[in-house]
Every structure is written in C-alpha cells, then in structure tokens.
Amino acid sequence: xxxxxxxxxxxxxxxxxxLFWERGVTATGIQEVVDRTGVSRSSLYATFGGKxxxxxxxxxxxxxxxxxxxxxxxAADPRGLPAVTEFFTELIRLRCHGPYARWGCLIAxxxxxxxxxxxAVRQLLEEHxxxxxxxxxxxxxxxxxxxxxxxxxxxxxxxxLLALLAYGVNLxxxxxxxxxxxxxxxxxxxxxxxx
Length: 195
Fold this sequence. Notes:
This protein has one domain (9-191): Tetracycline Repressor, domain 2, CATH 1.10.357.10. It contains nine helices and no strands. The chain has helices spanning 9-23, 30-37, 41-48, 51-76, 81-96, 106-112, 119-145, 155-174, 179-191. Keywords: DNA-binding, Transcription, Transcription regulation. It holds the Pfam family TetR_N. It comes from Streptomyces rimosus subsp. rimosus.
C-alpha cells in the first residue's frame, strides 16, 4: 500500500525556501521548520531527508523559481546594455523593497555559509554562478553587436565582473544598504564599459 502524505510537499518546500532565505540555514533549527510548515519532523525527514537534504532541495527550488527565469530573460533580451541595467535595477528593487527586503539571495547567502563545503551544495552554487555568467555574457555579446560597448571591452571578462557585482548587491542589501548607493555603484560600473 503506498504511503499517503497528509501534507502538500510542494507547499512545505516553498515555506522552507522562504525560511532558509530569510534566516539562513545555520540560524534555522529543525523545530522552526516544523513550526513554519506545520509538518512533523518524521514526515519532513521521510519526504526530504535530513536538514542538509532539505536545504539542498530548497536551493534547487529557489534556482528553478527565481534564478533560472531571471537569467533566461536576461540572456534572451535583444536590447543589450539596457537589459543589463534593468537586470540590476530589478535586483536592487527586489532586495531592498517589498516582502523579501534584506533577505539577500538564497544562493549568495549559501556561498557564505558552512553548508557550501557540502559537495552537492558546492556543485549547485557553481552551476548557478556559471548560469549567471553565461546570461550576462550573452547579453553583453548582444551589446557588442549593437556597438554599445567601449572599445576594447571584453564581454566575457565583464560578464564575470558583473556576476560578482550581483553577489555584492545581494550581500550588501542583507545588511540594509541604501538602494540609491547600490544603484549608483552599479551605474558607475556599467558606465566603465558603455560607449
């Protein structure tokens, strides 16, 4: 007879994503997960595995719901540099205003925690980073094709630099950085490469 779940694993995982995103995995005890989801420990463990497995599932869910769609939109945007500007403007808005303000990015937060030593987490972080760099590289090559980049600008190198800038925005926003200051920094960086 198949095991019948008395809760919605998808809804539980969504609650876990938000909990780990807001508080961090290290600061979040399993009892907080139980309280937030309303699911017993035994049911959580039976469905997701231990806390580290649950964290990895939350990271994967975050990538699917948040990162991958944003990177796909960026990579496919035909406008070039205006798309990069919009990407950062939206990133700063999300990180500094609304329901997720001061949460940073679950993936950027994962880079700074002890769980990043876990090989499965490290692989996910590397894949995420490469996806971000690839999206930025794609849109920067579009910018180059539109003759929007300053002479001598290497789109591949700048893609890596802008990926690091995105991580910086995510981390600084967690500590309450001024959105206008973040935007000024981003615009200053982009101006270095614009024609």
